[in-house]
Amino acid sequence: MLEGRGTIQRYFDRLKTLSPCVPHEIQQVQVQGPESSSDGSLSGVMQKWREYQRQCLKYLYEAPPIAAEGKFCNRTFDNYACWPDGLPGTYVNVSCPSYLPWANTVLHGQVYRFCTSEGTWLLKENSTLPWRNLSECEASDQGAETPGIK
């Protein structure tokens, strides 16, 4: 069993080198022991993430254009969440991604972005990366942890 744990840990370590393709939140998952379930294992999380990505890309392709004329923020998948088009000057929120190992503890949580009046996603300060607030989707340090996941 411990050999399996080492294999999974090496897989986690390998995953960390794949950034930025894999969300930072998945990269932070660490194995606690050999009792990891298929649901909470890295391969299980990655499978859920790929399905989430597939569904998002399908939505991005098939959803009708925003009804607004002029400027707006484009729909996108940022490797963490699936974003619809945004109206200028508004916050856009979506549910916490279902692939998160702790998704059942943040069922009502939201992740946010801001669409500027210019129709572009607000960027992090001194960065080319879009700003987002995912605090409602973070794993709680105080509740019960997902088995096998830290």
TrEMBL record:
Source taxon at top rank: Eukaryota
Xref: Gene3D superfamilies: GPCR, family 2, extracellular hormone receptor domain
UniProt keyword Signal, yes or no: yes
Keywords: Disulfide bond, Signal
Residues annotated as domain G-protein coupled receptors family 2 profile: 55-141
CC terms in the record's Gene Ontology section: plasma membrane
Pfam families per record: HRM (PF02793)
InterPro entries referenced in this protein's UniProt entry, alphabetically: GPCR_2, GPCR_2_extracell_dom_sf, GPCR_2_extracellular_dom, GPCR_2_GLP1/glucagon_rcpt, GPCR_2_secretin-like_CS
Signal peptide boundaries: none
Any GO molecular function: peptide hormone binding
UniProt-listed GO biological process terms: adenylate cyclase-activating G protein-coupled receptor signaling pathway; positive regulation of blood pressure
Name of the featured protein: Glucagon like peptide 1 receptor
Protein's gene: GLP1R
